[in-house]
């Protein structure tokens, strides 16, 4: 099974929040949008975590960090009219776009994202 991890799921793991156990079982080798990596690093920095330590931890998970490319931009833009009223951010749309391109399961802790119909398998971790 191909897995794309959303920033919220990865943060649940890093902060040892509910749902982290589900993420642990699926994250090794999963893909992460570089857009979501920015979100993870930003939120870790706000908690006073060292960016180098966070990146080292992520490297041990063998995450496949994917650049936000042309195909993903088109998918993300197409989702925007429905995603904005649903409260989804650009980072959420980037994650969904990557999941669509990769035909992957998307893991998230975000209830709004988990209920959004993007035509892919989105699994809530808690």
Which SSEs are present, and which pair or pack?
Layout lengths: L2 E3 L1 H8 L5 H8 L3 E3 H13 L4 H10 L3 E3 L3 H14 L6 H13 L2 E4 L2 H4 L7 E3 L2
Parallel strand pairs: 1-4, 2-3, 4-5
Q: Looking at the structure, what is the overall shape?
A: globular
Estimate the helix proportion, in percent: 55-70%
Overall pLDDT confidence: 96
Strand content: 5-15%
The number of helical elements comes to 7
Largest sheet, order of strands side by side?
1-4-5
Low-confidence regions: none
> Which structural class do the helices and strands define?
alpha/beta
* SSE order: EHHEHHEHHEHE
What are the defining features of this structure?
13% strand; 7 helices; globular; 126 residues; three-stranded parallel β-sheet; alpha/beta
Give a nutshell description of this structure.
With about 130 residues, the chain is an alpha/beta fold. It has helices at about 5-15, 20-25, 35-45, 50-60, 70-85, 90-100, 110-115, and strands at about 5, 30-35, 65, 105-110, 120-125.
Characterization of the model:
There is one protein chain. The chain has 126 residues and is an alpha/beta fold. Helix content is 56%, strand content 13%. Helix 7 (111-114) links the parallel strand 4 and strand 5 (122-124). It starts with a strand and ends with a strand.
